[in-house]
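We were asked to recover a plausible sequence for a given structure. The inputs and outputs are reproduced exactly as logged, with field labels preserved.

PROBLEM: sequence recovery
POSITIONS: 196
GIVEN STRUCTURE:
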């Protein structure tokens, strides 16, 4: 059975699907136009929702595996943290957390990066806390990123900026390992990580 593909029906399906994040819901017109403009006339929306639901199942499986690992994996940590925090919280996730484990219905509740330099998460959390003093602001940063801007703790303490900082210890400077693994996989066509 083919689902209706009018803009109104696609928006309604997205807004009624609990597995679709608000950011996707707000982009309905853009994504719908993309599908229509390329001759798919809305089919892309059905695929987006299905892929998202499959991704949620995979993310949950990864978090379930982490429950029994020592130390716990970042997916399990992120899922458990997201269950326990206020729905009005603002999250700044630089590194050290699995952003896919957080579900947000409020625009501006989740801040992440898409490339660029590391070390912005601590200062970013302070800026968001100053902008939203009535909301809890939680920054999740890897230990390597925290070392880049460790002076942010001094600023938060001396300027009385009550953001919450969670520093995860993954036992390595993971961004470098990930970069080397990507280089080996895509440039040298090697599959094993030899990063120390």
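RECOVERED SEQUENCE:
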């Amino acid at each position: 059975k083919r689902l209706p593909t009018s803009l109104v029906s696609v928006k309604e399906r997205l807004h009624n699907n609990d597995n679709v994040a608000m950011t996707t819901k707000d982009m309905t017109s853009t994504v719908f136009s993309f599908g229509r403009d390329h001759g798919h006339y809305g089919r892309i929306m059905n695929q987006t929702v299905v892929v998202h639901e499959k991704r949620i199942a995979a993310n949950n499986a990864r978090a379930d595996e982490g429950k029994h690992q020592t130390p716990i994996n970042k997916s399990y940590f992120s899922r458990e943290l997201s269950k326990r925090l206020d729905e009005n919280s603002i999250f700044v996730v630089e590194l050290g957390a699995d952003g896919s484990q957080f579900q947000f219905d409020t625009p501006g509740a989740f801040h992440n990066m898409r490339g660029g330099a590391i070390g912005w998460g601590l200062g970013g959390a302070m800026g968001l806390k100053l902008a939203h003093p009535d909301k809890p602001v939680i920054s999740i940063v890897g230990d390597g990123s925290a070392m880049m801007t460790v002076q942010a703790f001094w600023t938060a303490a001396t300027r009385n900026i009550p953001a919450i900082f969670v520093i995860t210890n993954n036992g390595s400077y993971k961004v470098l390992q990930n970069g080397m693994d990507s280089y080996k996989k895509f440039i040298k066509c090697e599959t094993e990580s030899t990063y120390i």
